[in-house]
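P.,

For your records, the input lines for the assembly:
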Amino acid sequence: MENISILSLLTFLPLIGVLFILLIRGDEARVALNSKRVALYITSFNFLLSLFMLLRFDGSSADFQFVESVEWLPALGLQYKMGIDGISLYFVLLSTFLMPICILASWNSIKNRVREYMIAFLVLQTFMIGTFCALDAVLFYIFFEGVLIPMFIIIGVWGGKRRVYSAFKFFLYTLLGSVLMLLALLVLYLEVGSSDMETLMANPVARGMQMWLWLAFFASFAVKMPMWPVHTWLPDAHVEAPTAGSVILAGVLLKMGGYGFLRFSLPMFPEATEFFAPMVFWLSVIAIIYTSLVALVQEDMKKLIAYSSVAHMGFVTLGIFTATTQGIEGGIFQMISHGVISAALFLCVGVVYDRLHTREISRYGGLVKNMPKYATVFMVLMLGSVGLPGTSGFVGEFLALMGAFQVNTVIAVFATTGVVLGAAYMLALYRRVIFGEQKNVDAAAMKDLTKLEYSYFVPLVALVIWLGVQPSVVMDKISPSVEKLIGQYEAGINKSEQTETAEPIMLEVIEEGLNNE
Amino acid sequence: MNSLTFAPLAPIFPELFLAVAGMALLIVGVLRGNQSMRFITQSTMFVFAIALFLLIGQEPSNEAILNDMFVQNSFTYYIKAILIVGVIASLALSKQYLEQELVIRFEYPILVLFAGLGMMLMVSSNDMLGLYMGLELQSLSLYVLATIRRNHVKSAESGMKYFVLGAISSGMLLFGISMIYGFTGSTNFDVIGATLIEEVSLGAVIGFVFVLAGLAFKISAAPFHMWTPDVYEGAPTSVTAFFAIVPKVAAIALIIRLLFIPFAGISEQWFQMIWLLSFLSMIVGAFAGLRQNNIKRLLAYSSIGNIGYALIGIVAGGDAGLASVLVYLTLYMVMTAGVFGIILCMRVEGVSVTSISDLAGLSRNAPWLAYSLAILMFSMSGIPPMAGFFGKFMVFEAAMQSGLYTLGVIGVLSSVVASYYYLRIIKTMFFDDPAPAFDSNIDFSRRLVIGFSVLIVLVFILKPSPLIEVSKGAVESFFS
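Structure tokens returned:
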């Protein structure tokens, strides 16, 4: 078992799929069909493989598992090192789980350049899984930034009307954050003398240095997350991206920011995290309330869900930076749950968009009459997004808020109002689309979910409910790693307090010595 | 006086061979006229291949020969090797273009040969006069190359511009050399170095400023970059490709040798100047490129920006800094060869086009070409996992190591700005509706160069060590 490098296999299997797709010959229709098939098989197999990995994962251990380490660039001391712990485990699963769904969701809606589309998605999967598995900071950066290439192409080629603008905005925004992180990464690497993430976590740098590095990393992760006020690329990117692009964007790419906070900011810069946490809290609260209000007035379904994503990510950052067990576990759970729910919500929009080619809320109405199954699916997801107890959305939000209450009551009170606002805009969306009069003939004539659509909604809805009823399945495997993370964080802070108290004592000793002379 | 034997001349064999072969080919050309161009082009490539062979056969030593005029150490060895490969690649790229554009002149490959010879000599020179000779041999060949289509207004104009400005810069260089000679009493690198380490005289510093200004012109570092866009645009594309791929590497190598051997004693003074050149080049390269519509002009600005990044490595200094410059330049050369190979393919119904909008919809007309260019563009903007990222990575690592935080931050920010225009090319190819398709007859040698370039850019990530280690070994000669 030790010899099978399952993480590398997971990461690079999609690239083998790309190779297959490149080799397909024949006329256009044939190429399109076979590309879709190859992509579906490969991503499904990858998902099964990741389930196998889940079975093999030792949930009681906080250490990195399935670790692979190969010398890669000895001249600079860089290595190819992969490994996962409880924190990254479910992000990897999320990436493998959503990918076949994306392929299915694009099966009929993507008509031109299918081969390239499938290649872009497979390459994207490689980079996503790599990001969550990398245990070398430079390797992490390569995967993290490599994601931009396929996503830029996906938005730009298969997007809507303003796709060029959105693709550029997405790319340049994220790149701007990332390059600052690259510099910080280099400084960190030179300070500590290693780019191994475990070594970096074990050796926090000096306090003054931490502040600068924290800010640079924050620039990157906050854009990716996205946090207010650097969230403006997200609504644009979501609205213009094809459905599957939005699914991946909301489902996985946003989680890279949160994952980065957990992997880098907290364990590597504990003192800076403690120092900047209040700022992050306020930014999160502003994000929760402000973007919820913005979501209330949206006329575009995708835009509304995009803004709701920003609000939900606000709970994540809030939870993570409380640095309490509940907060961090809540943050992680919220990310996983949001990954499923928002992905499914974008698919819901995709369903009606494919039929009517508009995302305008007012063009729909009364869909419950002609699309009852769709209305049911949408309802479960909407309630999940609102955070109804019994759905996965509740657990994450509740835990994150609980963590916040322990740290700062005012912040927590403000954040809780966001839950109410969340209910307001989601229920309003649901009412306007599903209930009410059937104003438009074409909307009233839409057919209910097809078998294909069913095939990908059923697992999503089941997961939303299952995670809500039995969150411990996920939590049990996360907890040890979170405890370890908090241990590292607190050790980092205590160490600095000790040195602070140690310094005056040293001075006294020296002074005494001088007096004696 | 010693009797003349060939053994001590061994380090200069590749250059001697090139000179003799060049003259022989010239005679062939004169006797047989322009129809011999194809033969001479192929022979020139062959001659360079032999020179590379001769070079590889050598054991680099640090000993100067010919009365301390010429030195062949691990650094010059490495630079010459990549120069030769660059020359061969640019000839391979231009063969078909020359025939299509009816620039059938046998002088073309011979001028390339002598330019290459000049570069090799100047990189290896250990004396200001040797440097000047090599530099002028190179420059004069390049002036003529820029005007090789003399019945073409733009080509003539660009050549004229290049010549006048180039002559001024050479004049400054010579003036600087004479001042340095006056204040240190020698033209030899080692003697100047020893004198300046003992005592820094103001006159020598002023002389150095002139020398550096002259050389900054050759590498087109801002604010001495004015000629670049016009010459890039006006010169025939194959000449532009040659300009972009080869001479800058030689000039940067020369600057490195000057800074770290004769002028090591005034490093405090040159530090600020190179810092400023680097800073300005990155800014100009990033911002001035934003509004360009001609792809050759765009690449001119891109090259200015890239010189700025390479200069960061020089400012950082030390073996890490210099090694990063070599890695950066090597990868840049590989990418540029590929990019120009694709630009040379931009022909619609037998007429070459150079505007960015001509690339529209290339991903549908010629997918392989479009994918290659897209990969190269992502690489140029330094997005991992392409090779270009590693060049930038090394340079910025060296910068951080030397505490050059300002330059590092400016560097990454300008790289974001510059990535806009690289993305614009990708956008044009992939997102826009197709423009008229390009002619599809591309000869084998050009395909080969493009293919190699893209392949290296893609797979460099798998095995980056060899290049990095070789570069580290190459710069050791400065610190032994």
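Two observations worth noting. The CA atoms of residues 29 and 114 of chain A lie 9 Å apart. Chain A touches chain B through 34 residues (CB under 8 Å).

Regards
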